[in-house]
Amino acid sequence: MTTIIKQTLMPTYARLPVTFAHGEGAVLFDTEGKPYLDAVAGVAVCSLGHARPEVADAICEQAHRLMHTSNLYQIENQQVLGERLCALAGMDNAFFCNSGAEANEAAIKIARLYAHNKGIEHPVIIVMSNAFHGRTMATVTATGNPKAQAGFGPLLEGFVRVQYGDAKAVAEQLAADKNIVAVLVEPVQGEGGVQVPSANYLPRLRELCDQNDCLLIADEIQTGMCRTGKWFAFQHTAIQPDVMTLAKALGNGMPIGACLARGKAASVFGYGNHGSTFGGNPLACRAALAVIEVMEKEQLANRATELGEYFLQQFRAGLQDFAGVKDIRGKGLMIGIQLERDCAELVKQGLAQGILINVTAGNVIRLLPPLVISQQQADQIITTVIDLIRDFL
């Protein structure tokens, strides 16, 4: 491993002492050629693994033809991608941007404009404890992490927070405040510690939104694109959100975000209401189309379901005798192992053993491996993580 210190970079990340030179599938290689099994996938971004040939070829071919024209003109790849995503998600239209935070900004703007069109001058959006929606001023306000908000006040008005997973608290807020126009929720919380709500949580939120003429906004930035065993995590239920946001795995590393809407939410934006210089350019959209093609061909949603169940079974069997393990939970290949105390040090210990893991919420080991990992690689992750936890406890 080599340590590179660049004084010209703002110190916004406590970077690990390794630089990766190339990757292949679920394995990354550092500048000295040492391999690392990747159980993070760029934080749920590289779901097809690294250097996926179909995506790389699509990007190269498109780059040789046309990378950018601006949304002043029709963009064929963007139109095709919008149609594909809307068909997969049961939505009506899409707005393309460059990141998850931007997608959530678009969703928040849709909710506020929807409210103003109804004559509500001070709209309020219900958000959740421990949520993470981004680091722009609107999305950091919606985020339920005081550390992410510290020093950036005053935060924006128009948000009220309730406990994640508590539909009754949402109902109480709706009854108390008629300015509430939307509920913003992650179907499974990622940064919040891989929190999986009860099966009736999203259906109850859908019911409450229908009763109060509110928009249900599903943040699928981490859960979307087959990660949880469905194309989108809300599809584990029978409901449809009014607005859905995507990013991360949509481009497998190529920056792209999307905000999809349906029904009454789909007609809110008009000419000039929103925009993005780079959003939906030919290059990013071609990459996303290649991602969808591979995910469909290889049935990676089913693969995530099967491997996710296997991970949970193996972890529960291997860690059942350890009192320091508080919970093992997940949905598809989105796995969280909660320990009784903070365990960030395990990240460096894993790195030393050639495996990349992540710790979030202080004491939750979060595993987000590429959906294309082999059975052997899955077993290697399981064995290594169990050994790390046993030694730690």
How would you characterize the overall build of this protein?
The chain is an alpha/beta fold and 393 residues long. It is 36% helix and 17% strand. The protein is built from 12 helices and 15 strands. The protein has helices at 41-44, 53-65, 76-89, 100-117, 137-142, 146-149, 167-176, 201-211, 282-297, 300-319, 345-352, 375-392; strands spanning 20-24, 27-30, 35-38, 93-97, 124-128, 159-162, 180-185, 215-219, 243-246, 257-261, 325-330, 335-339, 355-356, 358-360, 364-367. The strands form 3 sheets. The protein has a 7-stranded mixed beta sheet with strand order 4-10-9-8-7-5-6, with helices on both faces. Strand 7, helix 8 (201-211) and strand 8 form a beta-alpha-beta unit. The longest helix is centred in the C-terminal third of the chain and has 20 residues, at 300-319.
